[in-house]
Fold this sequence. Notes:
- The protein is built from 11 helices and 10 strands.
- It has an 8-stranded parallel sheet, with helices on both faces. A two-stranded antiparallel ribbon has the order 2-4.
- It is of the alpha/beta class.
- Helix 1 (35-45) packs across helix 3 and helix 1 runs parallel beside helix 9 (275-283).
Amino acid sequence: MIIDTECHVIFRVFPRESNPARPMTTRASWHEYSGDLFAAEMERSGVDKGFLISYDADDIRWYLEKFEGADETDFYGGRRYTLESAVKKYPDRFLWFATLKNPTRQDTLQRMQEDFDDGALGMKIFPAYVQLPLNHPSYIPIYRAIAEADRRIIFSFEDTWPGITPDVGEYWQQLDWMLGEFPTIKVQINHGGAGNPQDPVSDPLNPAARIIFDVVGRHENVWLSTAWLGKQWEDESEYPYRKYLARLESLRNGVGAKRLFWATDWPWLEAYQNYPQAVDCIRKHATFFTEEERQDFLGENAFNFVKDLLPAYERARIFSDRK
């Protein structure tokens, strides 16, 4: 069982027709990354399932404007595209997570319930993208509703802007509180727990990342997904991505293999890493894992994270496939 715990389908981002300065190597500017393509990539790579995360253009406006000098017209994809292009066509492949709208909106709880009704296993939350702390009063009814529905949360502490948003360390302090207040909610944190290369907490090799190790160690309801660790990628296209593996080993030593999920953030790193390489760098080169830890990391941990949300027939089929 191999599960990619952070992936997306995208029709276009920064389309070259309106962004002619984008290089051809920014393939998503001219190349569709559809459900059909991703299912084929998973098939040839031996990947069984993916946590497929949808976000609409307004959900990532902060990233588009502050970090790319773009706007909402530069992203084509989102909830409807994800459902029609991937989730409905390949229900055995994709486990869908929707992105939470700004919690200060009056319709956010209703829209979240509509996502659950349509099959979402949980919500992706970008707190920095709405410039809110995790303990903001508008998040509390969201957490309560997720707990009552027995759904999951995926947080991403990326693209922080200290002075406007909390920094990564502050988000981890707030998460420490949230995990204790809502111990029944299972939580995944993307990018190894951080996502700002300028913030020392974002680098698992930096002693400042200790706050991540400590909070994970205090709570049984949080796991780290490990694509694009800290949103730092210094390996370029040099397989098997030694710097990535070094950071992954530091996370393994800091929190243990049982608290880690494999992920790729497909297709955002496609300019450097094709999909089989993303799997093979773990299968063939992550020598710091024991064989049992490797199996846990590649899929067993993630399966246990969501198995209670899967239909009984699917759980039975998965267990049958393992025998």
